Every structure is written in C-alpha cells, then in structure tokens.
Amino acid sequence: MITLSIQSKPAAVFVNDFRVTSAPTARDLLAVLGEPSNVYDGAVPAPAGHRNNQIYIYNELGLTFNEHHHARLVQGISCWFETDDPEYRFTPSSDFAGHLLFDGEPMPLGGDIRDFMTASPLVFGGGFAGGWQHNFEGFGIFVRSRGHKLPSGRRSKVHRVVSVAVSWPHDPWAAAPSTPSDHGDR
C-alpha cells in the first residue's frame, strides 16, 4: 500500500518513506513504487532526436508520475479517483487505494469536492472549471473535480474529486542527470 504525504512545514512530499524536496529521477521513484503497468509517451511521436514526457502508469495503485522529456526528472505524482470514466489515455484502470495525507491529516479518497476541501488543513484557491490549487515553497497541489456522467450524457453539477496532482521544485531545463540522484532522500 502506498502513502502519499504532503507536508507544508518543512516543505516535502513523502512517497512512503522516500522524502522529496526537489525533483527526483524516475529511477528513484521506480525504486519505491516498482515497475509501472505502462509508460505513456504521448499520442504523437516526438520528432527525431527528441523525446516526449514519459508518464509512468501504475494501474493497481491508481497512481501516475510524469518525467520531463529534457531534464529526465520527475515533475510530479498524481492520485486518481473514479477511474471508470477516464478523461485521459494515461488514467490508471483502478482508483487510488492508498493513504493521502495533507499535513498529517488523512484526506478522503475522492468523493464530493466540498467534503474534500472541508477535510483539508490546507487552503485551496480556484474552483474554476473544477480545478483547485494550493502552492507553498515551490510545491503545488492541484485537485481536479467534475460531475459524474448522467444518463443524459451531461455531467452533474455536484463535483467529485477525480485526481490530486502534486508537483515539487524542479528546473525542467536543467542538465539531464547522469549520476544517481541527490534530489530525494531515503
């Protein structure tokens, strides 16, 4: 089981016991999460001599993480909920079933966005088009919500949490790492 813990003071993200304070390599997260179910590199191939961002998909965990195409550093990690109505090709096939903590407080796994925001010790801004955001010390948490699909094909006005994405400090144009990472701590 995976625990994703976001800590605002001092700023860090923990994937189980692995502490992230700036962008780790994919190898670092693979050591924690194991091999992904799939790696998605976009619908359109990258031009010759280039590569697309790589999205590592963990179907059984309900998780993905995104590796930047140039820096080859992980930009962030996402938990997915209500995966039976996928919005993207890289949506895992199962809902996140681990533990999600904000400043030590357990968060609901999906459900009504109002309940999620009430439970959160962190204050989110936005709400436009179902997106809610909280930023702190170079980290960002982005919560996406949408209404469930009605028999008419339209969506309910009552929004539910469909994903929680967490990003950490990173320079997407830094030199790609050639040695073991010093970005995360075990």
What's the topology here?
Layout: E1 3-8, E2 11-15, E3 18-20, H1 26-33, E4 38-40, E5 54-58, E6 63-67, E7 74-80, E8 99-102, E9 105-106, H2 113-119, E10 125-126, E11 131-136, E12 139-149, E13 155-167, E14 184-185
Parallel strand pairs: 1-8
Antiparallel strand pairs: 1-2, 2-3, 3-14, 4-5, 5-6, 6-7, 7-13, 8-9, 10-11, 11-12, 12-13
Structure description:
The chain has helices at residues 26-33, 113-119; strands spanning 3-8, 11-15, 18-20, 38-40, 54-58, 63-67, 74-80, 99-102, 105-106, 125-126, 131-136, 139-149, 155-167, 184-185. With 186 residues, it is mostly beta strands. It has one domain. The strands form two sheets. An eight-stranded antiparallel beta sheet has the order 4-5-6-7-13-12-11-10. Strands 9-8-1-2-3-14 form a six-stranded mixed beta sheet, with helices on one face. Strand 6 and strand 7 form a beta hairpin. The longest helix has 8 residues, at 26-33. The mean pLDDT is 90.
